[in-house]
Each structure stands twice: as structure tokens, then as C-alpha cells.
Protein 1
Amino acid sequence: MKSSYRPGRRGRGRVLAAWLAAVPLALAACGQAGTAETSAAGNAPRAGGTLTFGLSTDPISINPRGAGAGNDALYVSRQLVDSLTEQDPATGKLIPWLATKWEASDDARTFTFTLRDGVTFSDGSPLTAQSVKDNFDDIVRAGAKAPSSIIYFTGYKATEVVDKLTVKIEFTTPNAAFLQASSTAALGLLGPSTLARPVEERDVANVVGTGPFTLDHYTKNSEVVLKRRKGYGWAPADREHQGDAYLDSVVFKVIPEAGVRTGALQSGQIAAIGSVPPQNVQVLRSSGYTLVVRPNPGNVFSLTANESRPLLKDVRVRQALAKAINAQEVRDTVLTPDFAVATSILARTTPDWTDLSGALTFDVEAAKKLLDEAGWTPGADGVREKDGEKLSLVTTWLSNFGPNQSALELIQQQLSKIGVKLELQTYTVPELLQVYAKGTFDLAWGNLSRADGDVLRTNYSTAGNNYYRIDDAGLEDALRGQQSTADGAERAGHIQRAQKLIVEKAHSIPVFELTTILALSSKTHGITLGADSRLQQLNDAWVS
Amino acid sequence: MTDLTSVFHPGAEPGAADEPHTTAVAGAPVRGGAREVLTFLARRPGLVAAVGWVALVLPAAFAPGLLTSADPLAASPADKLAAPSALHPLGTDELGRDLYARVVHGAGLSLKATVIAVLVGLLAGSVLGLLAGFLRGWADDVIMRVVDVLLAIPGLLLSLALVTALGFGTVNVAVAVGVASVASCARVMRSEVLRVRHSLYVEAAHAGGARWTRVLVRHVLPNSSGPVLVLAALEFGTSILSVSALSFLGYGAQPPTPEWGSLIASGRDYLAVAWWMTTMPGLTIAATVLAANRISRMLDGEWRHRG
């Protein structure tokens, strides 16, 4: 056989494929011209079809209370469960969901919820005050086995069934953040058939809620398949579409490699992806994909000092680090304009955030001066020293957010200019928790998302884990103050005071805000992010 | 004693069936002049390229300053993700660091780790093989059963398990890779020892009253080490791959210290926008492994059997 080339069907296919591959490149070359943040939805939503969504990590557990893989696990379990309240992403205010109204006592110890009538779990049983009591008692009984939920139940006394649709939750200590907690997926309500099973059996199956989708099956490290719940009629008011969801089914595919995830979207194998890496944002945006972008509320990415270490006990050293870090350069280099430079220890989308950017200025000379005053003199190798000790700081970090490593390597360079050496150490989550418990680190890099200022208490209160060994009576007073009052304005005052103290005393050095970025194909519509910047329930989502 | 040996030395009995193996390294360029060497090389451009590449990579490992004056850690955000150019021959990474400088400086850690790995495998494997083959009996049984167990576990898996136990770091990665190659070195060494230990000159040394340690070190070891050395050269190539694989998985040096494997790992998220970040270190590893394989083939008697 001679190997002459005949442009048959296969040949044409290949030429076509080459053309298709060239199209995104050509569009990328056009640069800004093709930005399509709002793709041409135009036509009306269509019911039916399947949405395939690429997750970056295996959920591990789809029990909303469980120790799943964080955000990606919640993307899935949020579809299965509804909460008592909904936090409106647009305003940050709580609006009715499974509870039509609620009330907090002035001392923030008693919360009364009135439930919506006619709600049923997907196993057919009705939602009553008793269901709420069973759920909350179950969380407290599970304790450490319900890690995402138990943190909201400090000082839990009891849940009292007042009547069929009224339930009263009592705490022995004030818990002002409980109202916001009632909107989280972690406190989403599970049906009696789930509660009847031991906690261990709720990870890959048996998760029954009142949500718009039900669990079909979950195959570890591969996919989770959800089916539409028929007769769903209690979506909160911030959803455009009430009633049954448009989609017949949702398939969450686990695709850990960022490049593969982006490629799968570009080749049309899947309709939407989460955790879009910043370096691919520009390419996707300019080639016609819809990007869903929302800054995460909560504690921004920051470097927190371990104050039991003699080096960082000195507030001047911590302040010098804060002044020497050029957050703007970090943002411009390793991220995209979708990510904001931190303006406080809380992100802008957190309720009660206050702008402290005036206190977060980049000033190398001031940083050097502070270190001089603290007695650290430049050594022969450029690293400062005092009494024979080098100013070298062990910094822990996790690879849970792609750009972490690049950001820290850049910060390392910035700090070397004032004679501070940063040693980077990465761990797995269990290892890191041990390191935190032992206190064998100087600085910790990380963030924590939650749409409430109470997140600061989780991180910096001496009453909690206090991994950072902070000893600041003023800060502790503010953190307890915000927890002890149901009065919104007073609580905001405490939270703002706490932010100010953390930033001014450089207990933690804010660098940039996390932003959640999803990318959707042009045929996917109506996908939004909730107040916690995690995937919202897919009531409004549809495929064309 | 030395006199006795020389009487039974291979040269004296060219027809002997169990002619002791002389290593090609030692025996190579003695015969033949410069002209013969040139013809030999001229017919083997691949070998010349391999030797040339290694001659370039080795100084990078031990004196990177000779090949680049750029700082592999200096970030320059303005130049980030620049394509290869005259200023940056291999381009820049996401922080604007010169990739050429990082590859050159990465050679240091990667190749030193490889050398340690090969030495660990070669020394431990040789000693075990030598003892097993020479002592026989229960020592042979015990050692070879352990070697069988090691061979039953895939090398990279064994290295992964070891490095997890030892902790992260370049030296630990090197030791883990070295231990995984002990088994094959021990096997080859033992088979060579078994071949040599019954040859006439060894038996003559025994008969002459030499202590067994002396027979082992003076007669058995030098005459059985040839194939093991060739194996070590071959092992050099595979060890580069294993060391880089572990470093790719994040078990090697902590950032920002560059290693070949970790350079590939950090570049893979940028494949769509900066192909050079993974391709350049990848090609470097491939070229070094191929060069090591080609040179080990040369050591395996190519000079002696030249036509």
C-alpha cells in the first residue's frame, strides 16, 4: 500500500478538529474584545437535561455535617438540604426559608423559629418542630463526628418543641452568631431516615433532606449523581425560580488536575467547573465562557503569628512584617483583578466589615526602622540577627488553593528585602493540625470563609483552640462582646473593634481576599454563588 | 601471594572458560591511539552528544555559577510568564524568575540526590550480593529472601513508603530511591560472585593459604564488579527519574528551592498559558536520562567489541 493521503471522512474530521482548536486561540489573541461575563442567555429557561459540573476534589463525605473536603463537599450537600434561614447573597441579611420567622432573646441565649407548613423530606416524612430538635440533638450527640456543625453549638442547653411548627433553642452562654449559622448547609435539616442511621453510614449514601435534589449515587473519587426532587415548593425568595428545579439531574465529576478541568470544559465534555485557576481566567473569559465570580466572606488569606514564639511576641516585629509585605504586588503577580487586596482581616463581603486599608500600607523603610528599634541588626548574609539568633520564621501552608505557593514565594522575596527569612513548610491537613497543637511554627498562612464576623472568634479567641497563642485582653473582650448581644449595631461595633485590634497589633497580617470563580459553558445558565460564596442550590440552573 | 595471582591471571591463560571480567572503564583507552578513539566516536554521534550533555550538566550540578549568573530565587513580577527569548533562554515562571537559572540550580539538588541514590544502591547491593555469593549457606538464603521481598514491591512504591517514613527533603528522597535499587544490584553482584568464586585463580588463592577476606577483596570483588558498575550507570538514569518523580509529588526540597521534578510540578498548572515551564525542565530530565543510558551502553564493552 502506498501511503498517499486521501482526504476521506476521517481526514476532514481532523481538519475540522484543528480548526476548532484554533478558535479559542484566535479569540484569546483578540484579548479584551470577547469578554462575555454575561453570555447571551436571551431565550427563556428550559426544563430538563443534565448538568455536569467539574469538582476539584473528591467530596469524601456528602453529609453536610461531616468532615468532607470543604467547599467541594458542600457544593454537593447543599443541593440535598435546606436550612432554617437563607442569607441573601445580595444584602447579607437573613430571609425566610424553612422558618418563616424567628426571634432572638436580648441576651442571645434563646432562639425561637416558626417553621413553614407543608414541607416534606424526600423520604416523605413532614418537617416539624420535632425534626429540628432531632437534628440539633443529633449534632450535639455526634460531637466531633459532626465537625462542621458542632462549632455552632458551644454552650448548647436544649431544643424545646413549643408546638408542631414552633421550636425554641436554648444556650447556657450567649451565641449571637447562631442565627447566621442557621442559614449554613452545615445546619441543613436531615430527614428521620438519615438520623436513624449511625453517623458513619451518612458519608456516601443515606443523606435525605428537603432540598430540590435527591442523591442517586456517589462513587468515591469519581462522581456524585443527583436527581430532581418532585414537588419541591419552598425555595427562598432570593431564587428566581420557585417550584421544581429545571434540571432532571446533576452530575458532579471529580477532576483534581486544574488543567484537565479547564480542558474538559473547553472540549465540551462538561458544562461547568469550579476552582478555576487564576491563570486560566483570562483565557476562558476571552473565549466566551461565563465566569461566575464572588469574593469569599470571612477571614482573608493572612499570615498569623504564633505569639508563643519569642521572635513574634514583640509587636514591632509583627508590624514590620506587615509593612514589608506588598499585598498589591502579590495580587498583581499571582492572581487576577477578580481578587481584591485585603482591606481588613475580614473580606469586604462579610457583614460588619470595616475598611482598614489606611493601616495596611506598604512601607519598607518603616519596616526596617521597626526592626532596628526592636534590636534586630542586619547580619553578614543579609538576614537580621539579635543575640546570635537569626530572624528566620517557619511558615506553614496548605496547597488547598493553587496560587498559595507562588504567593508565599513572592512574600518570601519581599521579606528578604528587610532581612527576614521565611522558611516554607507545607503539610497535609491532619499533620498541620498536629503542628498547630504543638505550636512548632512561627507563622501560619491561611483563610477561613464564613459570612459572619464570628469567624474571628473561631480563629483568634483564647477560649477556643487558640492555635496562635494570642494573649490580648482587649481583643478577647471584643470577640466575646459580639457573641453576647443580639443587638445588630452593638454587635457590629464589637466586630469592628476586633478587626482593628487584629490589624493594628498585627496578630494576623491580611494579604488578599479569596474569590470563588466558576466557569460555565455558553449553554449553561442560572448558576449562582450563595452568601458564603459556595455553589448555591441549583433551582435556577438550566441547560440549553 | 601477589606472585601467585599473577601466574593465574587471565592474561596468562587466555583460553580459560571463566575469564575474569575486566571493567571496560579500566581497560578502554589503553590500546589504540587518538586516531582510533576519533573513528570510534565519529561512528557514534549519539554517544558524543550524550557525553557532551553530561559534560554540560555535571558542572551545573556542582558549580552552577559557571553556567548562569542569574539568581534562581529573585522574583521580578514585571517579567512574569515571559516566553523563551535571548534574555531568558528558557522563559520565566509565574513570579518572573529566570527558568534557565532555576533549571541550572535545580541540577545541583537533583543530581546530588541521584548520586546519593546510586551510591546507596550500589554499595549496599554490592556488599549484600558479595556476602551472599561468597558465603553461601544460610547467609545466602537470608539475604536473597530479603532481596526477593524487596523485588516483589514496585520500586517507586517502596520509595514512596520510605520517604513518607523518613520525612521530606532531598537527602531522604535520595536514600529512599537508593534503597529501592538495592535488590537488583545485590542480585547481579551475587550471580557474578558465583561465577567467579569457582575460577582457577580464586581456588589457587585459597590453596595458597590466603585469608578469605583477602581472596574476597583482592580477587573476587574486582573480577565481579564490572556488570554491577554498568548496572550502576544504567541505574543513574532511572534514579534521576525516580528522584524527579518524588520531587514532582512534593516530597523533595521545600519551595522556593528548585528541583527538576518540582519545577515540572509547579509549571503544570500553567500548561495552557506557559508551555515552557514544564516542557523545558522535562526535556532536561529526558536528555539526562537518555545520556546516562547511552553512556552505560558504552561502558558495557562497546569499546572492546568495536568493529
Note: The domain at 298-513 of chain A is CATH 3.10.105.10 (Dipeptide-binding Protein; domain 3).
Protein 2
Amino acid sequence: MRWLDWYGDGALHVLDIGLACCALEFDAAARQAAALPADVAPDARVAVVISGTVTDRLAPTVVALVEACQTADLPRPTVVSFGACASSGGPYWDSYAVTKGVDQLVGVDVFVPGCPPPPEALQAVFDELVGRVRR
Amino acid sequence: MRVVPAEGWDGAAAEAYAEGWTAFDWLGAVDEIGRRDCLRIVLALRDPTRPGEPELLLSTDLPRSEPRVASLRERWAGAGWHEREAAELFGVEFVGGERRALLLGADFAGTPLRKDEVLAARTGAPWPGGKEPGESAASPSRRRMMPPGVPDPEVWGDRDAAAPDADADEIAASAVGGRVRRRPR
Amino acid sequence: MSAPVEPAAVEPAAGTGPHGSIQLIESACTSCMICARECPSWCITIDSHTEPIADLPAGTRERTQNVLDHFAIDWSLCMYCGICVDECPFDALEWVSEHTVAAASLVDLTHGRAELAPRSGSGPAPRPGLDAGRA
């Protein structure tokens, strides 16, 4: 779990809840992010990215982290379900141990498909969020 | 592979240790249902003075109804983790072993890696492949296609109430997918 | 606070590879159900019906063919394994390099025949729920 200043200019703060292999793609997307952000400005955007398989065992922790961001004195966070596992259980949709979609537990604003999604898919979501158009 | 009786498990491990197989590599369980009515425990050991040697495998069969064997964690502390995993996922009791759950929640019931354990999500969801070409709904009158992992409904699920419960062997054998076979009456 | 980092380190669409999404060539599909049966994630649903083949030569015995009514891939479940593409005996499923785009709801991640059809242009697909109402 990490808190990142995504663009390095304070415009977007990202909490990564890395749970499985999708977290590697998050890392690939986050390679230019600054690791230790300054205070969150009132006009900044905040995103929580749930990247990877949410197991029933860990689900309460994931929920607590998202809710902590929602109730903290922060701009309302955008909750991103990154990859098939977080969105629906993905290849583990029939597992005895996996939560079949984190949206059953917390409100999700954006679902990114993929197993795993490419880093560009996450970057596109963030660019959209802060209104930075590429190319 | 040295196959030893369950009551000789601890002794066989001690003997292997004395021969120089002192390094614990892994311990696992296999549900042998369909071949034999047992859970097989396998222990892999290495001799650190002969790193190129293949590992020594020790194996023992435990009855599925009451799988119980001595814990080896006093000899190899690392075996405790593997035993806890086998205990949770296969329902094996390791006498003298650590009893705390390792992976699953305290309220979890079942032994998910036994082959007669039915995945509720699979049986509860309609399988998209159950339809035939040219169909928009699965026809109940046909010999149905079943997905892997879901037993024949006549064995598990829609079983005749008058029939005795299906045994584990029957459930595991019927959950292989494909056309539902007509079973002899 | 660190100096702003140039955010163009990750180029959109670059490195996405050929396995970004799957398209359906409807003219090749025979509704044979093989892809739906082979899919480990159960993410492909197909409805079809049979119709008599018209314009058979006189005296020929009447024959029927399957007609596709509904074909959908649930991208929230898909694990991008490509088994459906490999198994299709008629090459009706093909990989495309553009990644399936993110959506604001799980319902919007189920793509039907219109979304799965090959696109003539190379521009990004509309994003259901995200681009809606956005000119």
C-alpha cells in the first residue's frame, strides 16, 4: 500500500492497495510518480486504486482503507477497481476464498478491465480524471 | 519415494534425518479419490551436503474419513506452515501441530481442496456453455452439457430425495464436465 | 515538494501488445458454442436460433442453419487468455491491440455485438458510461 503524488505536482494523489499481480502493472504506470506527497490541496483529486484479487479474508481491510479515505478531510476519492479480479473475481470468480467484485463492498467509480490491464489503461483513467489529454 | 504407514510417519522422518536428509523442502497433500480412498501426504527433504542430489520424497496414505498423522514441526519448524495449509484445505489433523488457521477465516467451513468439495459459485451460476447451438435457453429435456467442476445434478443438487446421499467418490467422478451420462439404475 | 515530473513517460497505447481486446467477425460465427464452453471465466454468452436455409436447389432436403441472436463478452470477468480465439474453428474471434476501455459500471463492461464488431477506423472506442453525454 502506497500513497503517491501521481504527476509530482500535487494535482492527483493516489492510494494504491496492491493485492496481487495487477499491482505490478500499477507500478509500471506509476514509475514517474513522486513517492512522498506533500499535503493534499483542497482542489486536488484523490484516487484509490484496488489492484488485484480481493480475498474474503482481506476484504474488511480493503473496505476500511477506502472508507478511511472517504471520511478523511480530503477531496472525495475516486475509487478505481483495477483489473478483472477486483472488478468481478476474474479468473477466481468461482473461488471459495475470493470476493466476487469489490463493488459489493464499496462504491466503485471506474472499472478497468484486463488481466492485468496495461499501465496505459490506468494512466488514461487518471488523465481523464484531472483533465489532461495526451497527444 | 518411500511410502510408509501413517503410524510410522514420525519414525521414517527421523530415519531420513539421520541419513543426512536434514533440510525440509516442502510438505503437501493430494486427494487420491478416484484412485484410492485416501489423502496422501508427501514430504520432500534435501541433503544440504549433496545439493545436486534429487530430493527424497516420503509419502503416507491417510483415510479420508479420519486423516490423522504426527506433526513434524518439532523437527522442522518450517513444516508447521505447510501442515497448517494441509490441515485447512484438506482437513488433515496433524497431531502435535499448530492448530491456528493460516489462510482462511475462522468462520470458514469446509475443506476446499478435496475433490468432492463443490464450488458453490459454479453450481449457482448458469453456465453459458450449457446451451446447444441454435438455442437461447438450455433445454432441460436434453442430455445436458455440464461444466467442469459441477457434478451431475442427479448426483449432487437435484438428487432423488429417496436415494442415499452420494458418496465422495461419486461426486468427484461426476464433476468432470461434458455430457451428463445416463447412470445405470 | 519535488519538481513536476514530465507525465509523458507512459505513452497511451504503446506497449499494449496485440492482446488488448477481442473482436467478433459475425459472418464467420456459426454459433457453435465452442468458445462459450471453453472459456474458463464463463464470460462469453451466446443466444442463437435455427432457420431453414433459403434458396436450396429444387429437390434438396430442407436444411437449417444457426442464426446468431446475441453474443457478449463480459470484460470484467475476461482473463485475456485467448482460449476462445484459439479454439474457434471458424476464426470468428480475433485479437485487437487496442485495450478494452474502462467503464463506470460493470454493466457497461459487457460488450455485445455492436461493441465487438471490427471497427473500420483506428480511433479509440467510445467508453460506455464515461463518454456518455460528453461531446
Note: The two ends of chain A are 31 Å apart (CA to CA).
